[in-house]
Fold these 2 entries.
Entry 1:
Amino acid sequence: AQSVTQPDIHITVSEGASLELRCNYSYGATPYLFWYVQSPGQGLQLLLKYFSGDTLVQGIKGFEAEFKRSQSSFNLRKPSVHWSDAAEYFCAGVSGTYKYIFGTGTRLKVLA
Amino acid sequence: EAGVAQSPRYKIIEKRQSVAFWCNPISGHATLYWYQQILGQGPKLLIQFQNNGVVDDSQLPKDRFSAERLKGVDSTLKIQPAKLEDSAVYLCASSLDRNTEAFFGQGTRLTVV
């Protein structure tokens, strides 16, 4: 079955430290992949997307993600985290059936 | 460009009552989604429209939930009768087409007491 997995439920980092949030997908073919961020009481905001081509994609707010077919992964990274990055992050995929599937999310806490 | 608009933002009802949510997608977006997000979980797709036709409603509890998208623009999601486990945030999203990125509204937080 098609799925998107985020292995880490919670992650805590210090402000200024680097960040990597993991995402793994299980699809028959390479899906379109997305990362969204959700602040408390808000909807989901698109950070970045991967459709094809360059496997390193840049997004908003200094985020980037790398698509690795061999590992079925699409991990989100940021070199230096800011306190305002504290939020919940969702990885999502769209398959050939055009159905969006979300992971369960990773809640990021940033220590001052 | 205006985003996806949803109303109301918050709703509290008693179990067995009915409730309706409204969504106005981004202009020109053919695809519209309704998601249910229970606290601590990722969004779960309830129904997906392509223009005014249903593409996927496999996870919609059809005995109590219904949705429509008349004229392929606005959409309403209804729950009748509501159960305690329906307490969640209901998110509407739209995309230009089925394989492009989705843009989300701020959601409606439903509390069933």
Note: Chain A has one domain: 3-111.
Entry 2:
Amino acid sequence: AQSVTQLDSQVPVFEEAPVELRCNYSSSVSVYLFWYVQYPNQGLQLLLKYLSGSTLVESINGFEAEFNKSQTSFHLRKPSVHISDTAEYFCAVGSGGYQKVTFGTGTKLQVIP
Amino acid sequence: DVKVTQSSRYLVKRTGEKVFLECVQDMDHENMFWYRQDPGLGLRLIYFSYDVKMKEKGDIPEGYSVSREKKERFSLILESASTNQTSMYLCASSRPGGGYNEQFFGPGTRLTVL
């Protein structure tokens, strides 16, 4: 079985401040980890993913996440947020040979001008 | 531009009605999924299909059924809608294989059951 925990349901942060959205997972096999973003009134879209190799992965719009196997975490960070980053962010975990992906409960990031 | 489209953005139905939600993808993906999204609960998998006419139950299949007669189309059916099925419904598709493939999502259908 696999599961994902996003402890923070809402994170308010001022524009240009740094942010960290937390994600912890559990799985009995090796994992693949994802962050998806949902802008208002839209479906989800992939932000970044970890499959293997370097534990630090980056997105094109300045977000990064680090896979930490010992702490079973995959926290999402951005050093300076913009108003346009206001959205809901979902962490997800998949595992080999199992086509389903398990999503977390989501974290709403509210960037305050 | 790859796309997953859903037949309606907003839908209002009455208790007991049979409801069809349609999803179409143009990426020739084998896998298709139906989720419901509720505040504080995230996305929960209702059903998924890994090939035409093939389906598997997800985490919350009760009260729902699905149909996949063509590769590009995956339908979610509420046999007798109830108020507790008021929710946002999201369709997604992906390539086959393990849980390492990106899922592509439609814009969602917000269903209200009165």
Note: Chain A has a mean pLDDT of 92.
